[in-house]
Amino acid sequence: MKTNFDRWVDALIARYKLPTPAGKQFEDEVYRFMVNDDIPVKIYGERDGCIYLHSTLGAYQDKYEGFSRELLQANDFSLKKPCLILGLDNQYNLILHARLLPADIEGAQGIASFEHFIDSSSAIKNHFNLK
């Protein structure tokens, strides 16, 4: 029987015309997609129903004073949308994360939450000229 998570992933696959995965790739229900040809997305579904979105946007090598300010300004806090969190890994790859609650993936809201994540990923990737 399909869970809300599985139905949500099926809706994303249909909406974005993504290749259908052969199944869950790891124990913790991980799906990997490339959206809009340049945004890699990993989707993790936890047993408690929470969903985590993860996208590695690319390496940021330039160091300048305004970078921290711009990163903080790019963090998108909203009471209506899932919070987006930006970070850098140890190789200076800019990473975007979001945590969705089960209610965030219901119906049209689920697609809107994912689109918000993808649109934000694209905007940040383009703003910082990441490859």
From TrEMBL:
<dbReference type="InterPro" id="IPR010261">
    <property type="entry name" value="Tir_chaperone"/>
</dbReference>
<protein>
    <recommendedName>
        <fullName>Type III chaperone protein ShcF</fullName>
    </recommendedName>
</protein>
<dbReference type="Pfam" id="PF05932">
    <property type="entry name" value="CesT"/>
</dbReference>
<dbReference type="GO" id="GO:0030254">
    <property type="term" value="P:protein secretion by the type III secretion system"/>
</dbReference>
